[in-house]
Amino acid sequence: MDVVLEKLSFLEGPRWRSGRVWVSDFYTHRVLSAAEDGSDLRVEAAVPAQPSGTGVLPDGRMLIVSMRDHKILRREDDGTLVTHADLSGLARGVLNDMAVDPQGRCWVGCFGFDLMGGAPLATAPLIRVDPDGSAEVVANDLHFPNGAVCDGHTLVVAESFGDRMSAFTVQPDGSLSARRDWARFGDPPTSTDLAEVLPTLSVVPDGIAEPDAEGAIWVADADHHRAVRVREGGEILDEVAVPEGQTYAVALGGADGRTLFLAVAPSFLEHERAHTRDAVLLSTRVEVPLR
Predict the structure, then answer these.
(1) Are the beta carbons of 167 and 182 closer than 8 angstroms?
(2) What HEC string does 152-195 produce?
(3) Half-sphere exposure in the Cβ direction for 201 (13 Å, CA)
(4) Mean pLDDT of residues grouped by 10 in the chain (291 residues)?
(5) Which strand ranges, in their side-by-side order, compose the sheet holding 259-265?
(6) Are 126 and 112 in contact (CB under 8 A)?
(7) Which fold has domain 2-285?
(8) pTM above 0.85, yes or no
(9) In the chain, what are the domain boundaries?
């Protein structure tokens, strides 16, 4: 493992684009980018309501999840931030990660309940935001929809507390159909007590990478000190152990597409992370490159 970035609060949503790795740092309220080795660190955006997932529109402008005010922000060419969409009437709990597809549609998850406040587990909706900023709920009853990828035809979303990754077929009008298990690691929870549920989960899929050249997806397993490479159907093909800390998000990229970036922190709890600076972005080399 190489240390790419260090002394940060809690990292989420790493992405590889334009020859740089981009990542959100929750509690410093910044979106950062750096060269593959961590040099040339830049602050790309300041998001007071806490940034999470990011993505890029077909014209190159960046979209950023602003978690606490339920907005999708758009970074204009001059660096200013404007509201792309307001999801206040659709989201349950704070917004989470997202994917942006080649058509410029966003697929956005939310917590569904007050995770940091210790509320009972509850399912959450998945929201589609169209390029003009209009939005609607396109799926319900997901167990903490988190990392997502979408090629415009198939959407795959990690359900962190559901022990699975779900897939949907994307219809031409943006509606979703044919919901199915892309990878089922175990049975969805029956309890609403997170302390009871977590020990029963085989995989806690958090952030996920774009598919590699063989169609497999690297997945951050947020409760088992690792990232796993998963084939459709649920077979785990490879594993990267992270003994110190938990892995909350991953991205596949680098100059040759064989660098796996891992967002790592000691825990996810806000009261432990907000005022500490021990989160890191690590990298390691993998055999199968980005598609």
Answers:
(1) yes
(2) CCEEEEEECCCCEEEEEEECCCCCEEEEEEEEECCCCCCCCCHH
(3) 26
(4) 98 96 98 98 98 97 98 96 97 97 98 96 98 98 98 98 98 97 96 96 98 98 98 98 96 98 97 97 98 92
(5) 2-8, 279-285, 259-265, 246-253
(6) no
(7) Neuraminidase (2.120.10)
(8) yes
(9) 2-285
